[in-house]
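Anyone opening a protein record will find just a pair of labelled lines. With that in mind, the following record should read easily:
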Amino acid sequence: MMSLVSVSDLSRNHRLRLDQSALKNRLERLTTEVTSGVKSDIAAALGGDLSQISHIESRLTLLTTYRQNASEAEAFLDSMQTVLEGMQTSADELGPSLLSEASTASDDSLRIRADEVAQRLRSLINAINTDTGGRYHFSGSRTDTPPLQGFDSVLANLNTAVAGATTSNDIIDRIDDWFDAPVGGGGFADLAYQGDSASTPESPVSPDRQVSTVLAATAPELRETLKGMAIMAFAAQSGSSMGTSTLRDMFSAAGSRLATGSRDLTALRAGLGQRQAAVSQAQTRNAAETSTLSIARTTLTSADPFETATALQEVEIRIQSLYAITARLSRLSLMDYLS
């Protein structure tokens, strides 16, 4: 602090105000550093070289994007896996039982069972049409659209395809053909499915990993299980107009397709599980890198608590001294004025 001797009152007061302002600013800066633990002037602390901290910040921002992508992919894949699990559970349960009931159950029991499976198909279509955060699971890249039409519409289109068939073989062949028809063939892919089969970019979930969350309801593994249940739904809708012999054939055909669908779903779910594992591994790597970079950033930007506290104490002492000098000079000036 400059000497206050031989200066005018105006100059002296101006200098005191400048010192007071400077000390106040430094007090605020040091208080902020003590509270936040971060240096207030990063550029000065790093000697003007901001390249390293800029790289760290850029990388952390990118990792945040990866973390968000991975979190969304995880939720999406988990929901898909849940739907497929329920689908396979139904196929596992229904396949063997329908094959057995085809030859052992009474006529009335067969018709009651067909009605029950028809309702299972309705529930399955509703499950396939579920969404996560407004994005539908099995619509391919068209995630803003439910993948399948409702149960009644699907069955109405199936009835149109089967119309005129009289024997069990003809009915089953037409149902098979309707479900298996390619896009443009006027079957399931055109009349029941509302998504698309367009390829979409995989979502980056880590610096070195991308994962696809796309799966269409037209996948053969799903269609085979839907086909088995649809055979039962058609039989249930036909009611007593379908003879017992034909009904038993329908049970056998449905049970066979559900058994095949279950095996196919096992492979499909295994592939989905690999994607889930890839996302989990990416999240682990992202978290580890984020932690490492955060520590490095803290090392570069953190304020030493001991040094900051010492400097803060020094400033407080200087402020007290300044106020004491100011008060003393003010009293002397008043005495000079009164004398």
Remarks:
- Residues 1-6, 334-339 have pLDDT under 50 and may be disordered.
